[in-house]
């Protein structure tokens, strides 16, 4: 299972969380990664943790003030990027362009979507993975894998119908090892989570709990 920890703009210490991700990754067969804010990418990557960006834009080098260039994210040490997170929604053409930009920079891609229908559309754009996240469950602590299992199973089916090579993650409310196991039982190959680790008093203990049953 892939456990991708998105730090959003939570007021956590990104280096401490990254060091915990790095250390717990060494204890488990699961794959762990952390997605800090863009300004923190280089320092986080220097910890040795697998580092992802939260977003890249559909742009190339040039006159694009305030945008995030995929090559710059890769130069900072990121190996992958989220695209179209629920809190950073893009138009369809911009999702497509962001996937192309990420591929140009050799970044792995996870395109997020609200529901199974959008997952099918996202899979058609050829990312490495898609992540289904019902917005209403994000940040609630109520895990999608247990509160709304149908949405995960339907997302897995939708992606497989379009492109069997696109793996499916699920996210929203995931915070325990049981939640991760439930996600795997529904066909997800990973989870995307944030508050369960970024807002935990002890992020390393939270990560250890997440991977303990895997
Ligand atoms: O990127 C992570 C997701 O939006 C899930 O957030 P959450 O784990 O706080 O529910």
Written overview of the protein:
- This protein has about 210 residues and is of the alpha/beta class.
- The chain has one domain (about 1-210): Aldolase class I (TIM Barrel, Alpha-Beta Barrel).
- It is about 40% helix and about 15% strand.
- The mean pLDDT is about 95.
- The structure holds glyceraldehyde-3-phosphate.
Q: Report the CATH architecture.
A: Alpha-Beta Barrel
Q: Can you tell me the CATH topology?
A: TIM Barrel
Q: How far is it from the N-terminal to the C-terminal residue, by CA? A: 8 Å
Strand order of the largest sheet: 2-1-8-7-6-5-4-3
Q: How would you characterize the largest beta sheet?
A: 8 strands, parallel
Name the helicity range.
25-40%
Enzyme class: isomerase
GO molecular function: triose-phosphate isomerase activity
Pfam family, one: TIM
Subunit structure: Homotetramer; dimer of dimers.
Brief overview:
The chain contains ten helices and eight strands. The chain has helices at residues 14-25, 41-45, 70-75, 92-104, 116-123, 144-147, 149-162, 177-185, 195-198, 203-211; strands at residues 2-6, 31-35, 52-53, 80-83, 108-113, 129-132, 167-171, 190-193.
Secondary structure elements and their pairing?
Elements: E1 2-6, H1 14-25, E2 31-35, H2 41-45, E3 52-53, H3 70-75, E4 80-83, H4 92-104, E5 108-113, H5 116-123, E6 129-132, H6 144-147, H7 149-162, E7 167-171, H8 177-185, E8 190-193, H9 195-198, H10 203-211
Parallel strand pairs: 1-2, 1-8, 3-4, 4-5, 5-6, 6-7, 7-8
Helix pairs in contact: 1-10, 5-7, 8-10
The protein binds glyceraldehyde-3-phosphate.
């Amino acid at each position: 299972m892939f456990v991708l920890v998105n730090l959003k703009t939570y007021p956590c210490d990104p280096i401490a969380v990254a060091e915990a991700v790095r250390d717990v990754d060494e204890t488990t067969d699961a794959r762990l990664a952390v997605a800090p804010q863009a300004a923190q990418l280089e320092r986080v990557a220097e910890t040795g943790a697998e580092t992802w960006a939260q977003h890249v834009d559909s742009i190339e080098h040039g006159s694009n003030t305030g945008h995030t260039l995929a090559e710059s994210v890769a130069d900072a040490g990121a190996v992958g990027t989220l695209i179209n997170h629920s809190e950073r929604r893009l138009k369809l053409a911009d999702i497509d362009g962001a996937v192309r930009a990420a591929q140009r920079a050799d970044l792995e891609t996870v395109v997020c979507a609200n529901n199974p229908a959008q997952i099918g559309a996202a899979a058609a754009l050829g990312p490495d993975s898609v992540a289904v996240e019902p917005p209403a469950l994000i940040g609630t602590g109520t895990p999608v894998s247990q509160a709304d299992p149908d949405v995960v199973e339907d997302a897995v089916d939708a992606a497989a119908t379009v492109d069997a090579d696109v793996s499916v993650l699920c996210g929203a409310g995931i915070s325990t090892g049981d939640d991760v196991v439930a996600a795997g039982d529904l066909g997800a190959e990973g989870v995307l989570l944030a508050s369960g680790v970024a807002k935990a008093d002890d992020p390393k203990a939270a990560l250890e709990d997440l991977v303990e049953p895997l």
